[in-house]
Amino acid sequence: MARILRDxxxxxxILLTAGLVIVxxxxxxxxxxxxxxxVVDGDTLVLGAERIRLSGIDAPELRQVxxxxxSDWPCGTVARDHLAGLIGDADMRCxxxxxxxxxxxxxxxxxDGRDLNAAMVRAxxxxxxxxxxxxxxxxxxxxxxxxxxxxxxxxxxRRTHGGMDEAPHIVEDWLDAMIARAAETTRxxxxxxxxx
Length: 196
Prior knowledge:
This protein is α+β, with helices and mostly antiparallel strands. It is built from six helices and eleven strands. Strand 3 and strand 4 (50-54) form a beta hairpin. Helix 1 (2-28) packs across helix 6 (174-195).
C-alpha cells in the first residue's frame, strides 16, 4: 500500500512540474505592458510607444457605417467610443503574444478588472476573430450592437474599401498552439486544485 501511495505521489509531482513548465513556456512568449492608453478605433490602442491590436476580435473600421432601423449609423465610431468608455480613466494591463503583420502588438488587455477584448465582443461592438466565439453568440442572440441591424464584417469592409487585410488571430505554429492550450488547461486545473 505504501508503494502505491508513493507512486501516486511521484506521478502527481511529475505532472505538476510538467504543468508548471508548460505554463512558464507559454508566459515566456508573452510580454506585459501597462499604463494609460489612447483609443484609435474599436480594436486598436496606443499604450506608451506601442501600437496594440486587441487579439481575437475584429471591430468595425472607424469610417465604417452599418444599418439599423432602416437608417445608417456610424458603427465604427460607436465601437471606438464604446472601447474608450470601457477604459475610462483606468490604467490598463496588456499581455502581448506577438505582432501582427502590420507591426502592432497582439494583446489581451484588462482595464478596471475587465477583459476589454471579451467585453467588446459581448457588447456586440466587435466580432470574434480567432477567439471569443461564446461572447459573439451571446451578443448575436440578444441582438446587441452590430447584431441589432445589418453590417459588413469588418474584414469584408476593409477589402471593399481598400483597407488592410488581415487574417483571424489564430496561432499558426502547431507547437505554440499546443503549449498555449496545455498552459490554459493546466492553469484551470491548478486554480481549481488550489481553491478546492
